[in-house]
Amino acid sequence: MGRLPILRGARMITVTPDTFKIARTFTISRGSKTEAHVLTVRITRGGVTGWGECVPYARYGESLESVTAAILALPEGITRAALQEAMPSGAARNAVDCALWDWEAKASGRRAWEVAGLAPPEPVQIAFTLSLDTPEEMRAQAAANARRPLLKIKLGTPDDMPRLEAVRSGAPKSRLIVDANEGWTPEVYTELAPHLIRLGVAMVEQPLPAGSDDMLAEIARPLPVAADESCHGVASLAALKGKYDLVNLKLDKTGGLTEALAAKAEAARLGFGLMVGCMVGSSLAMAPAVLVAQGANYSDLDGPLLLSQDRENPLHYDEAGVHPPERALWG
C-alpha cells in the first residue's frame, strides 16, 4: 500500500455532522432509528481536499461529540501510517483514514485502488437488509424485495421463528442470511439452528453477545457463523478461531481502509471466510468498503439503499450489485 509523505506547513481538517433520512424506520435488536447521523471529515493539503465519512456508534462508547473531539485533536501533518498508532480502531480513525486515502488518490492522479496496489475493482453482489419488525411487516418487506438474490434478516429476539417463516414465505427464492445482533442465548440459537437450515438460511451473524460468545466453540454450529460485534481489527482475529467461520469487517470498526485491508489479509491467513458490512450511512461511507469487499463471501453494503437521500455522485446499484465509486465521489 502507498504511504503518504511527511508533510510540512498548513493543514486543515474539518468535521461536519450530517443527517440523512432513512426511508423507513430501521430496527435491530438494540433499537430503532429514522435518521442516519454521520460525521464528514475533509482534509485539505496543497489545494487538494480528501474526504471520508464515519458513523459513531454508541455500542462502542462513541458519540458525534467524542469522535469530533478526537479528530480535531490530531497533530498537524499526520500521515496515514502515523494515524494507525495515534488513534485506536473505531469511527474517528475511519473517517480520517479514508479522507487521507482520498487525498492521496487525488494528489497523485491515481485511483485509491492503484495506491493500495489492488486489482481494478468490480461490482459486488450485496445483501439487502430487512429491518426487525412484526412477522406481517417482515413478510411484506420480503415480498417487496423478493427479486433480490440475497436478503439479510434482522432478528435477535426470543420470538424469531414467526419472523423467519414470514420472510421465507414472502421471498421463497432469495438466499437468506440472518443477523441476530447479539440478541440470542446459546439455548435460543441451538433451538433455532435446525429451523434456519430448514428455511435455507446460508449464514448467521453474531448470534451471541460479544464477550459472551465462548459457547460457540462448544456447541454445534450446523451452519456458518460470522463474527460482527466480536470482530474489529487485526488484533481481534486470533481469539475468534474455533468460534466463528467468517468475520464481518466494517470500516467503522476496523478504523478505516488501511486496517480493513490488513485484517482481510490476516483473516484469509487464519482461514476465515469474509463478510464486509456497514453501518447505516451514505455512499461516501460505502465507497472505500467496496475495495475491501472484492472477493468476499458476503457483502452487506446496502446502507444507501436504506436512505431516502444520499450524497451527490452516489454509488450505482443494479442487478450486478454495488459498483465501484466514480472519482467524483471518492478515491
Short recap of the structure:
The protein is of the alpha/beta class and 331 residues long.
Primary descriptors:
alpha/beta, eight-stranded parallel sheet, globular
Structure description:
The protein has 331 residues and is of the alpha/beta class. Helix content is 30%, strand content 22%. The chain has ten helices and 13 strands. An eight-stranded parallel sheet has the order 4-5-6-7-8-9-10-11. Helix 1 crosses helix 3 (91-108) and helix 5 packs parallel to helix 6. The longest helix has 18 residues, at 91-108.
Q: What is the percentage of strand-forming residues? A: 15-25%
The total of beta strands comes to 13
Q: What would you call the structural class?
A: alpha/beta
Q: Note the overall shape.
A: globular
* Rg value: 19 Å
Helix content: 25-40%
Order of H and E elements: EEEHHHHEHEHEHEEEHHEHEEE
End-to-end separation: 14 Å
Continuous helix count: 10
SSE topology:
Layout: E1 12-28, E2 31-45, E3 48-54, H1 64-72, H2 80-86, H3 91-108, H4 112-115, E4 128-130, H5 135-144, E5 150-154, H6 161-170, E6 175-179, H7 186-198, E7 201-205, E8 225-227, E9 246-249, H8 251-254, H9 257-270, E10 273-276, H10 283-292, E11 298-299, E12 317-318, E13 321-322
Helix pairs in contact: 1-3, 5-6
